[in-house]
Write a structure and sequence with these properties.
The structure is a single chain. The chain is an alpha+beta fold. It has four helices and eight strands; from the N terminus they run βααββββββαβα. The protein has helices at 9-25, 32-49, 118-129, 137-145; strands spanning 2-6, 51-57, 61-68, 71-79, 83-91, 95-102, 108-111, 133-135. The radius of gyration is 19 Å and the shape is elongated.
């Protein structure tokens, strides 16, 4: 199954333009370091607004992709034998998070993906491939809520 996550680009872009407007109005704009730092932060925010994440869960593999402006910038295929453990946690007030710990490489964080069935599919992936998984106490509370 395929799951997507996008950033809240409207909020990020409005904050970026607000920050740029404030830094332009500061009288110290003629100082080169202030100008370059504020422009760098602005470009970073604009790029961050157009980042999308994708997780595809198959029978024996998980594919994690990060795209910027629709172009793949990171792609990782995880085979079930490479997964050491999956930990299910609570993030924020009422959201779930899964951390896929891989034997070699960086862990993958799966949070705020749509549709919300991604966590059920990850548990099914663990059970089918006999991978150890752990649910924290807070995760179980959210799970029981709905």
């Amino acid at each position: 199954m395929k799951y997507d996550r996008t950033t809240s680009y409207q909020l990020i872009l409005s904050l970026a333009f607000l920050g740029l407007a404030v830094s332009v109005s500061i009288s110290s704009w003629h100082i080169p370091s202030v100008k370059w730092v504020s422009l760098t932060v602005f470009v970073f925010c604009v790029c961050n607004a157009f980042v999308t994440y994708q997780v595809v869960i198959n029978k024996h593999t998980i594919r994690y992709t990060i795209k910027l402006f629709g172009l793949k910038i990171y792609n990782k295929k995880i085979i079930h034998t490479d997964v050491a453990k999956i930990t299910f946690k609570r993030i924020g007030w009422n959201s779930k998070l899964a951390v896929i710990k891989v034997r070699k490489g960086l862990s993958i964080r799966v949070g705020y993906f749509k549709p919300n069935d991604v966590y059920k599919d990850l548990i099914g992936f663990c059970e089918e491939n006999e991978i150890q998984f752990e649910k924290t106490k807070d995760y179980k509370i959210i799970e029981n809520m709905g």
